[in-house]
Every structure is written in C-alpha cells, then in structure tokens.
Amino acid sequence: MTPTTGQENARAREAHNAKRLYRFDCTKRLVARLRNEEAVIGGIGHSNFDLWAAEHRPQNFYMLGSMGLAVPIALGVALAQPQRKVFALEGDGSLLMQLGCLTTVATLKPANLAILILDNGSYQITGGQATPAAGGADYVAIARACGLPNAAWAADEEDFERLVDRCLSTDGPHVIGLKLDDQGPAAQTERDPPQIRDRFMRGLGVKKSKLPG
Amino acid sequence: MGQAWHEIVVEVLKANEVRLIPYVPDNVLKPLIAAIHADPFFTAFTTAREEEAVGIVAGAAMAGMRGMVLMQTSGFATLANVLASLPCAFQIPVLMMVSERGTLGEFNLGQAAVWRTMRPTLEALAMEHHVITRLDECEFIVDRTIRQALMTQQPATLILSPLLTGGKAAPVKPQGAEGR
Ligand SMILES: Cc1ncc(C[n+]2csc(CCOP(=O)(O)OP(=O)(O)O)c2C)c(N)n1
Question: Which residues does the UniProt record annotate as the domain Thiamine pyrophosphate enzyme TPP-binding (chain A) (predicted)?
Fold first, then answer.
C-alpha cells in the first residue's frame, strides 16, 4: 500500500470539509472490498440494518439493544482472532454512550481492528433528535486524543474506499469518521438473535455443526 | 492450610481455558486481579465501564476465546440492559464474577442500597447465579458454573460473599471491637 500523502491526510482530517455520505452506499462499498472473511459488527439499529441490506455474510454480527457495544464486541473478536480483520460500524449516538471504549482500544492496540463512526448528528432510529454533540464535537479528534492516531474523516466516497483499503492492508487500530446525510436505512435486519449468533460463530470458524445453516 | 479463594479461582479459570479478563477494579478483588496479571496465561485489562467488558467478553466468546468480567456489586447494577439484550438474547456464555459489597458489615449506605438490586435483577433476567460463601465449596461452584455456562450457551454470575473473602472492613472500627 502506498503511504497517504500529507495533502490527502490534511483534507480528510477536516470534519467540516467532509462530504455528507449515504450510509447504505458506504456500507456496500465497504462490504465489496472484503475478500478475506473479515468480521463486521453492526451496532444498534440503522448501522446493522444497512449491513444486512448490503447482503448478509456469515461474518456479520447484527447487534440488538446493547447500545454502544459495537466497538467492545468487535474488540473482543479482534483479541480472540488476531489474524482476522474486524470492523465495527457504530453510530455517533451509540459511541457517545461508550466513549471510554476508545481508550481501551488505544491501550490494547489491536492491529486488526477498524472502527467506523457513522456520524449523522442524530439519533435517527428514534426520530432524528440531535445528539448532545450538536455543540461541535469532532469524533475523529476525540479518537486521536484517546490515543488512536490512525483516525481520519472520509472526505468523499473515493477517500472512504482508500481509507478502508488502508485498514485492510496496514496495521491498526484504525478509525474512519463518516459524515452522513439523513437518508434512512435500506432494509431491516431479521431479528433472530440465537440464529445470528450461530451463523456468526460458524462464519468465524468457531462452531462446526451438522445442523444445516 | 490450603489455598486462598483467589488461588482456587485462578486454577479453575486456567483448567477451563478462561483467558480473557476485562474488569473494573474492586478492593476485595485485588489479590485475584494481581494473580491474573502476574500469569501470562491471561489477557487482563481494565475497561471504562462494566458494560464495555461484557461486550468484549461476548465478542471474544463468539470468536472462540473464553472470558470472565470482574466487577463489584455497584458495577453489576449498571448492566441490566446489556445483559438482557446481548448475552441473554443471543445466548452467549458471558461469565461474570462479582465482589459482593453492601452486606454483612457495609459502612456505605450507597453500597447497601444498590446491593438490594442485584439478586432481583439476576432473577428477573433468569440468569444462572451462585453465591460462594465457603472455601471448601469454592472450586466446585466456580468450576461447575463455568462448565454449565459454556455447555448451555448461557451467561452466568458468580458472587463472592464477604463470608468467603472477608469483604471490606469498616474503616472506623467500633469502640471495643479490637483486642479480641
Ligand atoms: C441504553 C439505551 N438507551 C436508549 C436506547 C434507545 N435507542 C435505540 S437506538 C437509539 C439511537 C441510536 O443512535 P445512533 O447510534 O446515532 O444511530 P442512528 O439511529 O442515528 O443510526 C436509541 C436512543 C437503547 N437501545 N439503549
């Protein structure tokens, strides 16, 4: 992988310059770049709905009501399987509920973990109310201040793909911030938690079963 | 005489391949935490919240690494939502060990008040839980609870009673309590 130029980095770091992206489009772009059974943990609500809509993979985990735990779950997977790349898709409201987890990731430094912060400025699934970060919090700057220097805003779709490639080809932990528009999700995940857990464990090679699935 | 409670716990964790130990510290857990950090078998670290530790152990369990969260009673009281919606709903064997504060000589009313929420919460979640009060039962209870959780794909909680650990003594001893 070619190192990023200073110019590109400077551009991507500016939250206010980042293009408003469409979550489903970005989720599809991410999934299209996964070729090695990378694990993807979708956080509460719309972050996992669009992961589901982007086409189910056995290495996807779709969380339910444990708001804020996409990054911790992904960290657990990353620690258990250091050879596998792991992506966490977390909403801004959700991350605010568990900001401390960024410090844990920075301390443990799992090389195989990437965190995508889906920043639409709101709690979209509960009606689009503004988050308490409306005063101007910058999640990429927060991640950096927590000790995660490989953190950048995606300037546009192309830049997002470049940042995903960097996650796939270099050691992390990585953080990508995505400024999102206010479009809703493309579908709704089937809510059957034991089935989802079972498929995920098979997808990670942890569970073998003669039951078809 | 024989082993201390924390030595027994370390042995049983190792025998059951429970390696990942995220925790929010507690004074009574100090010797256990120290022994776990001293042993390269374990991956142990602090988390900012107990919820976070539950998420980490749930993720690791699904990816093939067993873990247990250490916390005190007040930490358990922050967990109902994530326990219900993650290990209970998805049937993931998240193990928890709670140092029991708030009873049998508690000096802090806040701890005593939150203590009363622990058993009702465990019962409302229908979560397997056992209180360890005696040294001679410690190995059996810890070992069997861990095994059952793993085999049935269910979370479980082990409560360390002050009867086992000695608990945390009042910082100001009552008059006349000394010298006996
Ligand atoms: C502890 C807790 N509080 C509140 C909720 C209700 N809730 C579910 S999703 C959600 C908003 C999620 O916001 P965000 O992560 O920003 O994702 P978005 O909806 O914007 O995609 C809220 C408040 C919950 N599930 N758990």
Answer: 49-176
Place of tokens 């290990």: B87
Which amino acid type is present at position B136?
D
Q: How many CA atoms lie within 13 A of A174 on its CB side?
A: 23
* Residues of B with Cβ-Cβ distance to A78 under 8 angstroms: 59
Segments in chain A below pLDDT 50: 1-7, 10-12
Question: What gap in Å lies between CA A78 and CA A14, rounded to an integer?
Answer: 29
Note the pLDDT tens digit of each residue in B82-96.
999 999 999 999 999
A152 assigned to some structural domain: yes
State how far residue A81 is from chain B, nearest Cα, in angstroms.
7
Alpha-carbon separation of residue A122 from A17, A116, A119, A133, A179 (angstroms): 19, 16, 8, 9, 11
SS3 A17: helix
Report all structural domains of chain B as residue ranges with CATH numbers, in order of start. Answer: 5-163 (3.40.50.970)
Q: What is the ipTM of this complex?
A: 0.94
Average of pLDDT values for B31-60? 98
Q: Kindly state if the Cβ of A60 falls inside 6 Å of ligand 1.
A: no
Q: pTM above the 0.90 mark?
A: yes
CA of A126 to the centre of ligand 1 (A): 7
What DSSP character marks residue A31? H
Domain tally for chain A?
Answer: 1
Residues of B in contact with A60 (CB under 8 A): none
A36: domain CATH number is 3.40.50.970
Orientation angle between helical segments B135-152 and B5-15, nearest 10 degrees: 30
Q: Give how far A80 is from chain B: nearest CA, Å.
A: 5
Q: Return the percentage of chain A with pLDDT > 90, whole number.
A: 90
pLDDT, one tens digit per residue, over A53-73 is 999 999 999 999 999 999 999
